[in-house]
Amino acid sequence: MFHQIVNASKGKQIVMFLDYDGTLSPIVEDPDRAFMTNEMREAVRDVARYFPTAIVTGRCRDKVYSFVKLAGLYYAGSHGMDIKGPSKTRKYKKDHQALLFQPASKFLPMIDEVYKVLIEKTKSIPGAKVENNKFCISVHFRCVDEKMWAALAEQVGSALNDYPKLRLTQGRKVLEIRPIIKWDKGKALEFLLESLGYANSNNVLPVYIG
Ligand SMILES: O=P(O)(O)OC[C@H]1O[C@H](O[C@H]2O[C@H](CO)[C@@H](O)[C@H](O)[C@H]2O)[C@H](O)[C@@H](O)[C@@H]1O
């Protein structure tokens, strides 16, 4: 595999995209305690020394930054709906603006409202945890008794009946609620490649680990 990457990268700029949970950090019961090790942080720091590097995650961008703690990287939080990073020219231009792109910003009030609704709807289910990821929401059931999973899904589904502009998907022991927009992690990758100057380029090898 490594040799294939080396061969494919000849003459090309590698751009690294790294998922967070289960990739940089182990999967743990409490999402607020999914810390990465110092060794992993140093490995990411090393990678970023050589290649433009982005963290791409379903989490809130600020939250993942508080775990990774590395400046100079791109961060695409909320499943790619919250992108921030240094501009390509930052070393050479005094007036550079940091990159910021939030294609779902009009959904913020709705997400905040639904977050409160979901807290209320799930409070009777022991172990359920609602996480506000800014432009999307996660409802965790890793610590919920399996017998209660259907009841939890029912509560979440019924809450969303009033919000046709939001959709529900499932991840690893988590229900994920996000706006119905034509945007996802893949689009975030394309956006970042374009802002790095590699739109439709044959001179780039994007590597996604996640
Ligand atoms: O799209 P991802 O970046 O993979 O994000 C998916 C979810 O990741 C986090 O939850 C997962 O990791 C937790 C900590 O290890 C674990 O407790 C949980 O069961 C996993 O689903 C994050 O907390 C969620 O908000 C993301 O939706």
TrEMBL record:
Q: Name its co-factor(s).
A: a divalent metal cation
Question: Example GO biological process term?
Answer: trehalose biosynthetic process
**Family, as annotated:** Belongs to the trehalose phosphatase family.
Q: Which GO terms label this protein's molecular function in UniProt?
A: trehalose-phosphatase activity
Enzyme nomenclature, EC number: 3.1.3.12
Q: Which SUPFAM superfamilies match?
A: HAD-like (SSF56784)
Under Pfam families, the record lists: Trehalose_PPase (PF02358)
Q: What PANTHER family does the record tag this protein with?
A: TREHALOSE 6-PHOSPHATE PHOSPHATASE, TREHALOSE-PHOSPHATE PHOSPHATASE C-RELATED
Give the reaction(s) catalysed: alpha,alpha-trehalose 6-phosphate + H2O = alpha,alpha-trehalose + phosphate
Which InterPro entries does its entry note? HAD-like_sf, HAD-SF_hydro_IIB, HAD_sf, OTSB-like, Trehalose_PPase
Keywords (alphabetical) are:
Hydrolase
* Name of the top EC class for this enzyme: hydrolase
Q: What is this protein called?
A: Trehalose 6-phosphate phosphatase
Task: Tell me the route in metabolism or biology where this protein functions.
Answer: Glycan biosynthesis; trehalose biosynthesis
Primary role: Removes the phosphate from trehalose 6-phosphate to produce free trehalose. Trehalose accumulation in plant may improve abiotic stress tolerance.
